[in-house]
Design a protein that fits this description.
binds biotin; about 250 residues
Length: about 250
């Protein structure tokens, strides 16, 4: 990563996010915050970058965002939760991002399992959690003000400005995300309720691309561990822990 000075600001008053570092460029804010976590950084560190040269997405994919046009940030948490409840901090992040985008830009969003923030069938924001020991680094990428959609994302991704959203500065959006995230982390059952309410995947016919082939059925529910329950043709519920969901038209 380019070793550059970061400007530092405080996070929203009264939240656990006490320090926000802003970098012009970094390989990946998630990688950097994981490194800080291993070096003993306290919960609440936030790192944002104007651009990432090796942004990380889910399932080993790259996260692509034109420079200076997106909120690219990672927060460090050290949740004192049993392993089967740790995913709730990721769910809470997607709920916080969706709410913050709506309240600051006016763009209506829905969630797609597991943590994609969508406008229709185009992705506006994504969340990637990476853990090391007791640390969980939650990375959020929000497409805010894209001059154009990068060629490889046409038809797949969108940005708030392209959906008629009000202009919003990245610090303002970050502040709103962090304020909401802090409140959701203090009420994880409430965050899960809000997640289900926003989850556009529920009730949809879906295809889940799994390592051993596709699974098709109706997305019936999300269980306490955040796994998707898909009702297949036989009527059985199949539990999906990880994978890519495609929303299908009803049969
Ligand atoms: C996804 O694939 O949906 C998750 C994308 C997460 C991207 C964000 S951008 C800031 C943080 N740093 C990274 O390298 N990735 C996450």
């Amino acid at each position: 990563m380019p070793d550059q000075a970061a400007s530092r600001t405080a996070g929203p008053a009264g939240t656990r996010f006490r320090e926000v570092r802003w970098l012009a460029s970094v390989d990946s804010t998630n990688r950097l915050v994981l490194e800080e976590a291993r070096a003993g950084a306290a919960e609440g560190l936030v790192v944002c970058a104007g651009e990432q040269t090796a942004g990380r997405g889910r399932q080993g994919r790259a996260w692509i965002a034109p420079a200076g046009s997106s909120l690219l940030c990672s927060v460090l948490l050290r949740p004192r939760l049993p392993p089967d409840r740790r995913h709730l901090v990721v769910i809470a992040a997607s709920v916080a991002v969706a709410g913050a985008v709506e309240s600051t830009t006016g763009v209506a969003t829905s969630l797609k399992w597991p943590n994609d923030v969508m406008v229709g069938e185009a992705k506006l924001a994504g969340v990637l959690a990476e853990a090391d020991g007791d640390a969980v680094v939650v990375g959020m990428g929000v497409n805010v003000d894209w001059p154009e959609v990068p060629a490889q994302l046409i038809g797949v991704a969108t940005a708030a400005n392209r959906e008629g959203g009000r202009p919003v500065g990245l610090p303002t959006l970050l502040d709103e995300v962090l304020r909401r995230y802090d409140a959701h982390l203090d009420d994880l059952p409430g965050a899960l309720r809000e997640y289900r309410r926003r989850l556009g995947t529920l009730g949809r016919r879906v295809r889940v691309d799994l390592s051993d082939g596709p699974l098709t059925g109706i997305a019936a529910d999300v269980d306490h561990a955040g796994h998707l329950l898909v009702e297949v043709e036989s009527g059985c519920l199949v539990e999906v822990a990880a994978g890519d969901v495609v929303h299908l038209r009803s049969a």
